[in-house]
Design goal:
This protein is of the alpha/beta class. Helices cover 34% and strands 23% of the residues. A hairpin with a 3-residue loop joins β4 and β5. α9 (264-278) crosses α13 (380-397). The N and C termini lie far apart (57 Å).
Length: 398
């Protein structure tokens, strides 16, 4: 049985939700599931915008059949070839053999790599225009947002941007298609941030290029491939993407993250958090990296302006989960942060220099002090160093 929503008079959401999937891209936890968004436009010609993951293909096909209501499918626009959106392309080709595929040349190459080659393919480039009747669309190239074949499609009649993986979010829709049908800032922004920072975060310059192109368009709807559709307050979410892609923090505050084996490094993290609060710095978040999936840590690192990173020494190096977090921050291009580093070790506290080297890989990073080294547990001298560090952090936040 079909499950669809009308976006505009002629445009329908025909996607599906998956709450059985535990890991997005087999790495990122998604306790609220995810949506796979696809859209059908009914005009003189019928147009399908992207497909869906194979796990929801049955629902997806039922939705298309219902919306077409006996009409043939004339066109299929492929903005993004990643399998969570492209896995059902071949099934559409089998069921609607006369459909004409519109995509970039690179996307056509990727189809061959995935084992199929449509006969009716029309490749497009920047600025090409296509009319389907009263609706006209223009194609905007968006390479590396976040795959090389990506484009976005702008429908000029009603101002609809089919944005591929841009402006997406983790989370199943639960019937609420539009962002204005939920309290987005309360219930969705954390998943949206975690989605952007972990999936697209590395490609900030490319997102900035797309935002510049988008600024010249009269966008009234944003239809992403995951998460809610935007038809109100678009500036709110566009501003978030602008900040995230420029690596500007959303909040002036401190993310305190620690890796502790027996509680002594954890104690130092709690002491620092308490000292900061005593100085009026209450915009803080405390995380045990051993108990928190790195995707959540990355999202919080993008959120806050300051970081305090504390790690015990392990095998003469950084504790493995903390090392992974530091490597992920560098890989995802995080920059423009103020960082404090605290190392612990009982006989050879070697994590400190390695943490400093890892922080150096993040562009425009300011170290707030020399590495503070704790030998086994806090004493009067290292407690005093934490007090001085709390003063430094508080001053830098003013």
């Amino acid at each position: 049985m079909h499950c669809v929503r009308k976006v505009t008079e002629d445009l329908y959401w025909v996607g599906a939700n998956d709450k059985r999937l535990n890991l997005f891209e087999n790495i990122h936890p998604i306790p609220r599931g995810t949506s796979y968004n696809s859209y059908v436009l009914l005009d003189e010609k019928t147009v399908l915008f992207d497909t869906a993951d194979w796990s929801v293909c049955r629902q997806f096909l039922d939705n298309i059949e219902y919306v077409l209501d006996g009409r043939k499918l004339d066109y299929m626009v492929i903005n993004h070839m990643e399998p969570d959106h492209g896995a059902s392309i071949e099934e559409i080709l089998l069921r609607y053999p006369e459909v004409r595929v519109i995509c970039t040349a690179k996307a056509a190459d990727f189809m061959k790599q995935f084992g199929f080659a449509p006969e009716n393919v029309e490749t497009v480039k920047e600025g090409d225009v296509k009319s389907f009747g009263k609706h006209q669309i223009t194609f905007v190239m968006a390479p590396m947002v976040h795959w090389p074949e990506v484009m976005v499609t702008f429908e000029t009649t009603e101002g609809i941007l089919f944005s591929a993986d841009a402006f997406g979010s983790f989370g199943a829709l639960d019937g609420k298609l539009f962002a204005d049908e939920v309290d987005f800032d309360r219930d969705w922004i954390d998943d949206a941030r975690r989605y952007y920072t972990n999936i697209v975060g590395k490609y900030g310059p490319q997102v900035q290029n797309l935002l510049k192109k988008a600024s010249a368009l009269d966008i009234r709807y944003i239809c992403p491939l995951h998460g809610p559709v935007w038809r109100k307050d678009l500036e709110y979410f566009i501003d978030k993407y602008d900040k995230w892609s420029r690596y500007e923090p959303e909040k002036k505050g401190v993310m305190i993250c620690y890796a502790s084996m027996y509680g002594n490094t954890e104690n130092a993290a709690n002491v620092l958090a308490s000292l900061l609060c005593e100085r009026g710095v209450t915009e803080t978040a405390l995380y045990d990296v051993s108990c928190t999936h790195v995707s959540y840590l990355i999202a919080e690192a993008f959120k806050y302006s300051h970081m305090a990173i504390l790690s015990v020494t392990y095998n003469l190096g950084i504790f493995p989960v903390m090392k992974n977090f530091l490597e992920d921050m560098a890989a995802l291009n995080l920059q423009k942060r103020s960082v404090a580093l605290i190392c612990n070790g009982s006989w050879a506290p070697q994590a400190g220099p390695q943490m400093a080297a890892a922080a150096d890989k993040m562009k425009d990073t300011t170290k707030l002090s020399d590495v503070i080294t704790i030998v086994s547990s806090l004493n009067d001298a290292t407690y005093q160093q934490l007090e001085q560090l709390a003063d430094t952090i508080a001053d830098s936040l003013k």
